[in-house]
Design brief:
The structure is a single chain. This protein has about 300 residues and is an alpha/beta fold. It folds into two domains: about 220 residues, Metallo-beta-lactamase, Chain A, CATH 3.60.15.10; about 80 residues. The protein is globular. The structure holds zinc ion (ZN). Zinc ion (ZN) binds next to loops. The site of zinc ion has 7 residues, from loops. It holds the Pfam family Lactamase_B. It comes from Janthinobacterium fluminis. It catalyses: a beta-lactam + H2O = a substituted beta-amino acid.
Length: about 300
Amino acid sequence: MTALPDAIRVFERGWLSSNNVLLVGADDTALIDSGYLTHAPQTLALVRHGLQGRRLDRLLNTHLHSDHCGGNAALQAHYGCHTSIPAAEADKVRRWDSEALSFKATGQQCERFGFDATIAPGELLTLGGLAWQALGAPGHDPHSLIFYCPAERILISADALWENGFGIIFPELDGASGFAETRATLELIGGLDVRLVIPGHGAPFGDVAGALRRAHSRLDYLMADPLRNAQNAIKVLLKFLLLERQSIALADVPALLTAMPVFDAANRRFLRQGPEALGQWAVEQLLRAGAARVEGEHLLNEA
Ligand SMILES: [Zn+2]
């Protein structure tokens, strides 16, 4: 029950780059999400190989985090593909407001791209010859979309639902609401008839009920003490920097963390620690999780 239809190919990319979903129909081709900037050449190679000589007609983003739209500029340069982004992000992308767009807030990179159209929740799309519904999935990101194909009972869930959990609930970090939205999004997904989820990270999976159960219980855990969401965010953001750079001087960790406005906001609200102490705490967390190791004066990425 977890087989993909011929029209859908999933490039599972890991954590620095989100997964990419290539849809190849008789009359149209489309890609959902484009990975991180530094992986753009690999994204292009995967897409070219998957298209086997066909053009990429459309590019769509579930949401505009750097690991989901970092390949947009390269794909647009190569294919001139029609590009659709979530409607609520249009003004920010038009102005390329890197502060409002989260790239600056998280210390992440994204090459500037444009767009041709926007997608609002509720819209219907034909991608790869299949009919899809775009649904609003706020929580991790207030403007995220997910895509549901009723005929195939497939959900492209972005970072709203993974096999084990979901993405950082960013809005809560600077005092906006995100927990309630996450709950509503999980309930929305629970109301869909889904046989296969293609998540933003990790392999496609069939046990939707199990994933929803784990996600609800993780949400309960985070809501019981919002400090946990802030701590998780700091760990994940440091790990992301490490994935990007592979090696960070231990002495640079406090400054790198405080340079991220999202981190600063979370620290002021929840953690209230000096940068040195917090940097040390974050490093210890990654070491304990086996996500990093120390060699001499450097923190190194551990796969
Ligand atoms: Zn995201």
